[in-house]
Amino acid sequence: MSPRPQGVPAGGRHFVRGGALRRLAARDGTAAAVMIAPAAVLFALFFAWPFVQGFWLSLHHWDGFSPPRFAGAANYLRLLKDRVFLGALENNVIFVVAVVVLKNVLGLAVALLLDKAVFGRAFFRAAAFIPVTMSFVAVGLLWSWIYNPVFGLLNAALDLFGLSALKMSWLGDADIALYSVIAVDVWKWLGFHAVIYLAGLRTIPAELYESATMDGAGPLGRLWHVTLPLLTPVVFINTLLAFSGAFVRNFDIVYVLTKGGPNHATEVVLTDMMTRAFGNGQMGYAAAMGYLLFLIVGLLSVALLALMRSRRLDV
Amino acid sequence: MAASRDDVPARIDPATLLRPRRLAGLAGVYLALTVVVVQTLYPLLWVLSGSLKSKQDLINNVWGPPASFVLSNYADAWRIAGMGSRVANSAMVTALALAVLVAAATPCAYAVSRLRFRGRGLVVAVTVAAMLVPPQVMAIPLFMVARDLGIINSRVGVAFIYAATSLPLSVFILRSFFLSLPMDLEDAARIDGASRLTILTRIMLPLVRPGVALIVIFGFIEIWNDFFLAFLLLREPSVQTIPLGLVAFFQQYDSLWNQYFAALTITTLPVIVVFVLMQRQFIAGLTAGAVKG
Questions:
Q1: Helix (H, G, I), strand (E, B) or coil at B69
Q2: Which end of chain A is more exposed for a tag (fewer CB within 10 A), N or C?
Q3: Around Cβ A280, how many Cβ atoms within 10 Å?
Q4: How is chain A split into domains, by residue range?
Q5: Closest Cα in chain A, distance from residue B17 (Å)
Q6: A2, A134, A241: residue with CB nearest B268
Q7: Domain B76-290: which topology?
Q8: Gap from B272 CA to chain A (nearest CA, Å)
Q9: Correct CATH for A75-310 of 1.10.3720.10, 2.160.10.10, 3.20.20.70, 1.20.1280.290
């Protein structure tokens, strides 16, 4: 907010300026309706309508062609016993936890390095940020070459450093494929979180570090007692961003790298949902998956926001 | 961001900079930063150099630069992947979506931040709630709605859907820009008899240009790079965008590595160049929303 001119009370300033503006304000209702109309139409068509339609659909059996049959809660009850779906949900949870932790820890580490850089900070920051601007498809295809077991960059690098024993079929081995996919997502977003952490670090006054040093705090002491407490709001923002992204923005990367394989080892809810809807023609069942995912993400996001509010971290 | 030290050099004290311990620490910082940069940039340089190699060169010489530049990889990739129509489709869909987005989001953000009317709080609440509903979870009903509207395989229709999915965040960002402007300018114009629409287009819009630029940059990266909604809604090859073309090319000709690298370079490089040219505004905009100085 810009500084408020002196003597002007907060809130609805132009209402206290007397007659002319008050009379004009009465016409604001019409102007507002006209200005909001285009956004409202887009919202009604592509947010509200599908949102309601999706709920209706999730209560029906429908193959996409013949008339839908009412199913009540049957789709949802079936989901709770569906091994592939539950496996996908579990993978999704592993994906979210790993990605949120790694993006925050590594993002903060990179930001601390950038903060200490005396020269060339803009270059290093831009270089770290570049993967963020790439499409998931480009990133996924790039990494499918890096992970290629025969001529991929990663195995070649292991050979180079004499670590040939660690060579693996990174996306073909069901035990590690999910973690290989997670690593790619972290690689793509690391610069994004580092840039936000860096901006947070730059708002911490240098005097606080100086006085902490005079009190005898070492580098770790300063990190623990000065940096992290002052950075708490930024940690929350980064967590919220990483969290909501990781639940629902993993379709592209999984589809391009593994299509959910091998044997559902990297299946997430969205890939499973798309296969059911367009591969198996279970539209109602897939809609129920989408709704359940929405409920999980929505409730957890609201909980996280409430936690931020309660700690007075208004963002 | 008044308290930001972003434009100030890092804390340097000339007296301590040359002490051995300080120098060793700095060397460590730059060593670690080099590792960070190598792991992000080397794979990209690897794609670039692979796109210029012959197939034999790529197999025999995994790490190094190309022995000779095989520019025909680019021409071949352009032809085989049908890049011409894909690039045109992506450009058309993205441009239309961004135009619709700005046209819809700006007046809405202005109204909820500067006008007093019944239901204003409701509009803001719906905007925030909609930010928590990712379009991906509505994929199936969105497909049905698009089918009912007859806009499956329609580039114009998909552009409107992209505009809608970027709308809540854009209104939210622009609203904070409008809220930061002083009221006085506007009040003077109103007493002079200017209409709300004139005020918005003539006075306010030039002042929130950085906010509009921000939603356009975010929207551009989001829409230009999107695979999911395009995969869902653009099923006809003739209307498909670049990401769909890349995946199709990859799945159809999985041994044309050099051409593949060329296609990847063609599609990735423009966005990287735009980012590098605009990185100051971009990063300032990104962090202004997330971090309050």
A1: coil
A2: N
A3: 11
A4: 16-58, 75-310
A5: 10
A6: A134
A7: MetI-like fold (1.10.3720)
A8: 7
A9: 1.10.3720.10
Half-sphere exposure of A105 (CA within 13 A, CB side): 6
Give the count of beta carbons closer than 10 Å to the beta carbon of residue A219.
11
Answer positive or negative: Cα dihedral of A192, A195, A199, A200: positive
Tokens of B33: 């930063």
- B189-199 burial, b if ≥16 CB within 10 A, otherwise e? bbeeebebeeb
Q: What angle do CA A214, A224, A113 make, to 5 degrees?
A: 90
The helix (H) or strand (E) run that includes residue A223 is none
Render pLDDT for B111-128 as a digit per residue (tens, 0 to 9).
998 888 888 899 998 988
Minimal Cβ distance to A135: which of B117, B243, B260: B243
Look up residue A15 and give its two tokens: 């209402």
Q: Which two tokens stand for residue A165?
A: 């024993």
- Picking from B108, B141, B179, the nearest residue to A57 by CB comes out as B141
* Predicted complex ipTM exceeds 0.85: no
Query: What is the separation, in whole angstroms, between the first and last Cα of chain B?
Result: 4
* A54 contacts B140? CB cut-off 8 A: yes
Q: How many beta-carbon pairs under 8 angstroms link A with B?
A: 304
Test the A interface: residue of B49, B53, B140 with most A CBs within 10 Å: B140
Residue where the block lists tokens 């407490």: A229
The tens digit of pLDDT for each residue in B165-191 reads 999 989 988 998 888 888 787 888 877
CB atoms near residue A7 (< 10 Å):
5
B chain contacts of residue A1, beta-carbon cutoff 8 Å: 179-180
Shortest distance between the Cα of B223 and any Cα of chain A, in A, equals 10
Amino acid at B217: I
